[in-house]
Amino acid sequence: MTVHGPVTRAWTCGGCGLPWPCPTRRRQLRAEYAAAPVSLALYLGTQLVRAAEDMPRTPAGILHQRFLGWTRDTGRPAQRDNGE
Description:
The protein is mostly helical. The protein has helices at about 25-30, 35-55, 60-65; strands at about 5, 10-15. It has one domain (about 5-70). Helix content is about 45%, strand content about 5%. About 10% of the residues are buried.
């Protein structure tokens, strides 16, 4: 278990106090689920639902970006589908 696990209710990181998942935990999760990106999305989707229950006043878009939006960011420019 990582020290960068979530402290539920507030959804902060138990290791550094930043909003969970913190940058360190994101790197860990990317490495852990490198061969299973769908499993990562399912795990984080479950955590998003739990967080939404704990933080009902937080806008859904904010929660989505925090829990799932970063998973598609590879650091490379997005490839465009040109229809070919």
